[in-house]
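[09:14] KT: can someone run the structure on this one? pasting the chain below
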Amino acid sequence: MTEIKLFTKNDCGKCEHVKDRMPKDLGIQIVNVDTVDGLAEGAFYELIEKTFPVLVVDDEVAAEGAIPILDKLKEIAAGKSR
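[09:31] RB: done, structure tokens below
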């Protein structure tokens, strides 16, 4: 099964935009990099210098920013429904 993680930050309008509009049936794990655990996981994926939000799919950075992430999630959702 595809593992999907959405990395977000506090006070991030684009992060909230994605969370409000993402498909709910994909089992997406939300990881807040403003927490100790989230920061450690973000460091594992080398996200420290990235623009948030960031989408990681199966341990690969798949998209950065609200619109590319929502487009990628639509693509993933379409593939799951086939």
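[09:33] KT: thanks! The beta strands are 4-8, 29-32, 54-57, 60-64.
[09:34] RB: yep, looked fine to me
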